[in-house]
């Protein structure tokens, strides 16, 4: 069942005429007839010429909008100067209502163009169906380049223009939920390394569970890659690293480690380098983003450590890669555990809890219950110390001076951090990042 209908009039409203109003009236009439029991939400995208008022544009369409009782409360005219501005506004309306099945009624000659915009601004969460908006071929108001034909791939220059238009629009949007904030550890020397852990503020992601500096996009969530890329650009500007030399682990919840400069594995939860100016990053939305720094050999690393990766020893696997690849001394390596779900909130089934109990009984609370509380941070520290990392070279929530603490519980601080455990499947992601300064 179609949940929303998008009618694209952006190319038709340069000179609003009675035939355009008639076209819209007939289209709405067909929608109403086909959906008498469950009326969809309807969004009409029209062109707002520079200097014109939105109200005036809407009023010119009023004759065509009258008389549709079942659609009246579900119909909205979206006026914008560009396709990306109009479509992004429609996306916000869809996300507010958690709508995913959309019919797009678009002039045939604009269909391929619209598909490119949609591919960039939406993810696989949404399902789109396309229907031709019947427009007379000699319509003077239809403004589409002559070389563009339905069913043909857009020229690469047009694709580049669309990408540039989207990027410029997203860059113009204001930051949400306050300024971009980066947490830094006093353990890692800032004269050698650039590093930090992000919080959820200062980006443009607007969906509540993703707002606002979400730094991961997937086919199962509503934040598209272009929005995450813009959030990353803002982070890079604030932190001082090059977003084009940014490498994030490819999470597999295991213990494989990527060595920068060597063949990249398909999936890995740890990554190390001794190259200057290359920024490594590990995500976390309850799982621990772990950063590694050796100021003597000038090497660094990042790891993503969830409960599975913790048990598989991903942190020590990252340390061992630094030792074997760059000649690091175990005693020189510094390790910082970032914001992650704490033992106050995190529970696992009893069978999984047994594995943490074997590491140390103190890693489990209420062990005899069906879902004991688990301390993946303590388990990580214990495994690192057993591997040879000095206790004083590990920073986690056991730090004496709580003013220096950055290993906050993500589930306990909804204003500062994302949490899969707390927010469900459409959750946002923060990261830990590190690089060696030039």
From TrEMBL:
Localization annotation: Cytoplasm; Endoplasmic reticulum; Nucleus; Peroxisome
One BP term from GO: inflammatory response
UniProt catalytic activity: S-methyl-5'-thioadenosine + phosphate = 5-(methylsulfanyl)-alpha-D-ribose 1-phosphate + adenine; adenosine + H2O + H(+) = inosine + NH4(+); adenosine + phosphate = alpha-D-ribose 1-phosphate + adenine; inosine + phosphate = alpha-D-ribose 1-phosphate + hypoxanthine
GO molecular function terms attached to this record: copper ion binding; hydrolase activity; S-methyl-5-thioadenosine phosphorylase activity
GO annotation, cellular component aspect: endoplasmic reticulum; nucleus; peroxisome
Family, as annotated: Belongs to the purine nucleoside phosphorylase YfiH/LACC1 family.
Quaternary context: Interacts with FASN. Interacts with SDHA. Interacts with ATF6, EIF2AK3 and ERN1.
Claim: rRNA-binding is one of the keywords in the record: no
Species this protein is from: Spizella passerina
CDD domains per the UniProt record, alphabetical: YfiH
EC numbers, comma separated: 2.4.2.1, 2.4.2.28, 3.5.4.4
Gene3D superfamilies: CNF1/YfiH-like putative cysteine hydrolases
SUPFAM superfamilies named in the record: CNF1/YfiH-like putative cysteine hydrolases
Keywords: Acetylation, Cytoplasm, Endoplasmic reticulum, Hydrolase, Immunity, Inflammatory response, Innate immunity, Metal-binding, Nucleus, Peroxisome, Phosphoprotein, Transferase, Zinc
Name of the gene: Lacc1
The protein, known as: Purine nucleoside phosphorylase LACC1
